Amino acid sequence: MLRVTLAAAFALSVGAAVAADAKRGEELYARCAACHALGFDRVGPRHCGLIGRRAGGVQGFEYSAAMKNSGIIWNAKTLDRFIADPLKALPGTTMTYAGIKDPAERADLIAYLGSVGCP
Amino acid sequence: MSSFLTIANPDAARRVFLGRSSLLLSGAAVALLAGRDVLAAKAGGSTAADAQILNTALAAELEAIAAYQVGAESGLLQKPVLDLAVQFQGHHKEHADVLAKTVRQLGGNPVAAKSKYSFPVEGLKNQADVLRFAARLEQGAVSAYLGAVPLFANRDLSKAAASILGDEAMHWAVLRNALGENPVPSAFVA
Q1: Among A34, A37, A39, whose Cβ lies nearest the Cβ of B144?
Q2: What value of ipTM does the predicted structure carry?
């Protein structure tokens, strides 16, 4: 029930900002595939269940201190800010990636992440 | 074998891999190598940040090595695809080796390979599945290096990362070709 509520709230927040395309977001997710997967931890933590999760919250994954102590709760807004420029949004993160600069691409990617469940 | 900081061009890289050149070090790297920690520290946060970028790349390279090992041992790859996979794994080993050495040279501690990696092995039923799995990793690697290139304070490291990016892109293209897909689907990578 909580998951459904979170997903609905997330969809509303994304939809209010941009008409995001989760299918295109799935294609864009290939850019993340060097380090991330939906259902298991890799160089980066798993992405399923991301929306509503506290940053640094995947049990057993070794996060940077910056991420662990950030206090971030992942939602459309916080994800958008982080993905745009991870190192600027959260200095000290080990996600050393320049970011996705196109707001529409970020919205699509976030819509995808919000649409997928855990495999 | 030396580190990225000594690599000027592909020929120089080859010489570096053969251990014959170590003359092109940056000031910070020279200071580190000479044990002049104060000078090295003056290079400051940018050197530590560069080391972190390399360490993230190293972690991904180590995982790629393990992934190709899974593919090679799966029994699903036939020659000449098997030979190709082993060759690509060898490239990732070379990347990892030089990345680790460069992290050390910058005063950092290179990450070690994990004792266990998670891969979707239950979804690998035939050669095409293994090729798709590898192609997705290579595509991701291209994006990851593309996202790292502009971040380095030391432009020599940007150049070196771009060199690896090119290699990963070739892997991706060859794997797509082996799958019967358009090997180069667009004019740009992202």
Answers
A1: A34
A2: 0.84
